[in-house]
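Render this sequence as a predicted structure.
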Amino acid sequence: MFSAMDVVSGFSRTVATLLLALLCVASGFSRTVAAQTAPQMESITLDEAVQRALKNNPTIAQVSQGVLRAEALLQQARASTLPNVSATFNNVVVDTERGFNGAITQPRSQSAFSANVGMPVLAMSRWAATTQARDQIEIANLSTAEVRTDIAVATAQAYLAIIAQKRQVDVSLRARETAMAHLDYAQRRLAAGAGTRLNELRAGQEVATNEARLENAQLGVRRAQEALGVLIVANGPVDAAGEPVFDVSGQLVPIGAEPAWMAARPDIRLFAATARAADRVWRDSAKDFFPTGTVSFDPQALAPAGAFNSARSWRFVVSFSQPIFDGGQRRGLKRFRESAFNASRLALEGLQIQARSEVRLAQETVRSTERALVSLRSAAEQANGVLSIVNIAFEAGATTNLEVIDAQRQARDADSAGAVAEDVVRRARLDLLTALGRFPQ
C-alpha cells in the first residue's frame, strides 16, 4: 500500500522532472530562435582583420597627422633660408605742398612704391634647423609605424580571444551534454524504482552549473567579437574565420643574432631616430655662435618726385652680424640640448635591454607552454577516460553518482585547462613574433 506522502512525493518528483525538461527544451529553443533571427555575422581571417584595422582604425589616422605637422615645420624652417620678396605702396596727402624758391620739396599728394628682395647668404643655424626639421618627419613616420604595430597586436589579441572563448563554449557544451545524459539516466532509474531523489538532484545541479558556464562562455565570445569589430571599424561584431598559424619554427634564434631583429622593431627604430635627432640638435648648437649674413635689394618709385627725391631709386645692402656676448643664453641652450640627447640615448639603451629580455622570455615561454600543452592534453584524455570508466561502474552499481559527478567536473576542468593552454601557446607565439619585430609582416 502506498501512503499519501508517497503519492505527493512521487507527484512532486514528476513535476520537477517535467519542469527541468521543459527548461532545457526552452533554453535550446530560445537559442535556436535567436540563431535564426540574428543577422549573419561577418567572419574574417586574422590577416584580413589586421589589414582592415591598419587601414580603418582612427587611432592610426590621428597619429599620422603628426607627419603632416612635421612636414609643415620643415617647410617653415626651409622658408627662412630661401629668398623673400615683399612690396609696399604708400600714398601721403598733406594739407598743402611744401617748397622754397619755386621748387616743390613735398607735393601735396605723393605715392611711393617700394619692394624688398632679401636672402640669407650665411645662416648656419637656419640651415641646421632645416635638417633638424627633416629628422622630425622621420620620427613622425616611425611613431605612426609603432602605433600600427600596437593596433595590429591588439587586433590579433582580440581575434585569439574569440577562438579561446569558443573553445570554452565547446567544453561547456560537452560538459552539459554529459551532465544531461547522467540526469536522464538518474531520472530513468528513479522512475524504475532503482534510483534515489538525491542522485537526481545532484545530476540536475550539475546540468544547471554547466548551463551557467555555457552562458558565460557565449557572452565572452560576443564580447571578444565586439572588441574585434571596434578595432577593425566594423558596424557590428565580427567573428574569427579560423585559427591562425604562427610559424615560430625558425624564430627561436640565439640572442647573439640580435642585429637581425633589433632593427626590425618599430619602437627600437623610433628611439634610435629620436636619439640621432637629439644628437644632431646638440652638435648643431655651435652654429648658433657663427656669424650671419644677408643681402637685400630695395627698389623704390615716387610719383610725383620731390626736389630731394628722385622718381626712381634703389638700394643694395650687404649685412653681416656676429654675436659676441649674450649673457650665457646660447651656452645654456646647448647644455639643455645635451641633456635631451643623453636622456634619449639612455632611453634607447634601456629599451634595447628590455627588448633582449622580451625575446629571451618569449622564446622560453613558447617552449614551456608547448610542453605544458602536451601534458594538459594528456591529462584531459585521461580525465575523460576516467569518466567513461566511472560511468560504466556506476551503471553496474559499483560506485555512487558522487564519483560520477566528480569525474565529470574533473574532465570538464581538464578540457577547460587544455583550451586555456592552447590559447596561451598561441599568444606566446604572437608575443615572440612581436618581440622580434616580425608581426605584422
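Summary. DSSP finds nine helices and eight strands in the chain. The first strand starts at residue 42 and ends at 44.
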